[in-house]
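Morning!

This is the sequence you dropped in the shared folder:
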Amino acid sequence: MIGNVTSSYDRNTASSGTPLDAVVFDELMTSFAPFEANPQLLVGVSGGADSMALALLTHDWCQARGGRVVAVTVDHGLRKAAADEARWVANELARYGIEHITRVWQGPKPTGAVQEKARQARYRIFDDLMCDTGIFHLLIAHHANDQRETIAMRQERGATALGQAGMSARRYLRNGRLLRPLLGIPKTDLIATLIKRGQPWIEDPSNIDNTYERVRVRKALGARPASDFENGQRAAIRLAEEQQIGRLLVAAVTLNSNGVAIIDPKVLLAARGLADTAIHALGQVVRTIGGAAYMPARDKLHGAIDRLAKDNTARISLGGCVLHGRKGMVCVYREFGRMAQDAVALDTESCAKSVRVRFDNRFEWQADAAAVSAQSGLWIGPLGLCDVFHTKSFRSALREIAPFIGNLPRAALASMPALYDKEGLLSVGGLEVSELSDVLSAAGCERPLGRGQIASGGSWQFAPQVPLWESGFKSSPKPDNLLA
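The structure's back. Tokens below.
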């Protein structure tokens, strides 16, 4: 049963808004160019006024360019009405010819920090859908009122200047871009847009539940969004700081396919005087290498930088990673002791087309189902669980055949992901299978099947929850991999 469906809202509030038209929305979208000649976009739609307005505006924009919109509703399973609401959204959007997909958040639900964990789950679902559909752009309906609330909450927590600049209009997930075209638009304008079209929307009861911090902040702030000046000033601060962080990452960091980052400490420490640039840059590296959603706390990052400045051989545990100073560099790798030590068994029989497994929230192993269907007993775990890894002959051969990887700290190697069967090691993330084959042979072990190709028909990809792309940085030293 659908409750709280409305087209009336507060007419006095709505009357103060200005409906968005195609010209205004095109100006908003222009800042995210370029798009494909016939753009395809995903739009997150909960059924609320904000996301319904975004879906309709985006549909018109894509139709005018020969493209299409796919609306996505995530049923978190937290309210009984959620499934009915998803069906309502699908039926409403069908009237405009908008394709709609519902995804359900599976698994046990949290008892604390519910909104935050639901948001993280929602973005994971969106990200996976971008991979499945091949659509690179995801639009989210955060608006000026949301931005004001976010800034107020971050100010209360003592965030850095970058944090207090609010949400970024553009960020990167593993499989594409997340875009927020409405960040400068007040909610009243979005409501006015729907009223002009005669389109109802859903009022989520959680939006007035004082249990949640955002609701309490919203009520304290009132309905007035930040002024255009405030929005413009904060956007300029964020843009300038992100550009500085991006330049520092490009100059100081090499990100490798085995999930290890190498930092030039001289370049990083030289940036200590640039506000919080060095802190944010290091924080983003740690977040990416650790597969986390957020950076470590500012004071811990500041302490780590100070310690590296005093001791170039320091070994620091931070954010599920190790910062290891050695040989004139800082090696950042996943902390083996913070990883799940249980092996992940692969289901190679029930998948129709492909097998895709995430490991440690940082790596993906993917294979064609037909290529691995006959292989049972495959499992994934860290390389440190493998007996042969602990032999001197294996590590000696690794240093000779794959010098960069072989010369990394032993603890860094232990955290690399590996594919096993009952006979032993088949492949290692970041290491060519032909190299692994030679290493095992030199160490007196049998080589994995598939010399010269990926063992078991699969491939590894370093795919952390938040890539370094968010600061305009993808990988180094290849300049064609830098994302402007």
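Headline: The two ends are 47 Å apart (CA to CA).

More detail when I'm at my desk.
O.
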